[in-house]
User: Which sequence fits this backbone?
């Protein structure tokens, strides 16, 4: 259900585009469909390069594209104010514009419309983590995990928050659960290795690092 949305990733936005396209096609909202172009992979790749190279013109173009996308989401909401997914997508766009308060507000609306939508809790948890509201972020990830218990990303994100709360045992449990669900993802081993180092388990840390390196090399 959650494709890697948010966490500075492109994959999450691909999912967003897919969802928006389905909504727009279903409702005949041709203008709304245009907003998908503002989240295309090529634009995000250009943005990443622009940030790395400090290309101001490219970065400004990126900001313009995201702002335009929000306008189309606004239009979509005006046409159908009961669609939780569009609020999530607008919240993601706001997050990319550093409007974290606005993002949380949209995620709150999505949850109000659909209290059993794990993605809404997941993305809200991410924003709360960046706002350093760690306890609140944990609560959101708990809800997401309860609704979608076989999504490794939820446990991965919750482990990161637990690490910030110095709950190392809880973090290891979550990394281990993520590995159990998705054993081919090197990030989970890297995260667990980091915690193992902190608690003095050098053998476990070394094993996890080697596994992460092995997966990364494939």
Assistant:
């Amino acid at each position: 259900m959650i494709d890697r949305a948010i966490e500075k990733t492109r994959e999450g936005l691909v999912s967003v585009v897919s969802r928006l396209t389905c909504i727009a096609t279903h409702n005949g909202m041709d203008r709304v469909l245009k907003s998908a172009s503002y989240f295309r992979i090529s634009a995000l790749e250009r943005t990443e390069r622009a940030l790395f190279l400090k290309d101001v013109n490219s970065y400004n173009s990126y900001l313009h594209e995201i702002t335009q996308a929000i306008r189309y989401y606004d239009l979509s909401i005006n046409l159908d104010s009961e669609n939780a997914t569009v609020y999530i997508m607008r919240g993601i766009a706001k997050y990319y514009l550093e409007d974290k308060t606005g993002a949380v507000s949209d995620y709150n609306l999505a949850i109000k419309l659909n209290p059993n939508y794990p993605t809404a809790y997941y993305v809200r948890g991410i924003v709360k983590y960046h706002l350093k509201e760690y306890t609140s972020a944990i609560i959101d990830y708990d809800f997401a995990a309860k609704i979608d218990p076989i999504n490794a990303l939820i446990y991965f994100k919750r482990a990161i928050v637990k690490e910030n709360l110095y709950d190392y045992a809880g973090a290891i449990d979550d990394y281990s659960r993520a590995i159990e669900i998705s054993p081919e993802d090197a990030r989970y081993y890297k995260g667990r290795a980091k915690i193992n180092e902190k608690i003095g388990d050098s053998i476990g840390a070394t094993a996890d690092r080697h596994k992460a390196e092995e997966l990364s090399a494939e």
Q: What stands out?
A: Confidence is low (pLDDT under 50) at residues 1-54. The chain has twelve helices and no strands. The domain at 165-218 is CATH 1.25.40.10 (Serine Threonine Protein Phosphatase 5, Tetratricopeptide repeat).
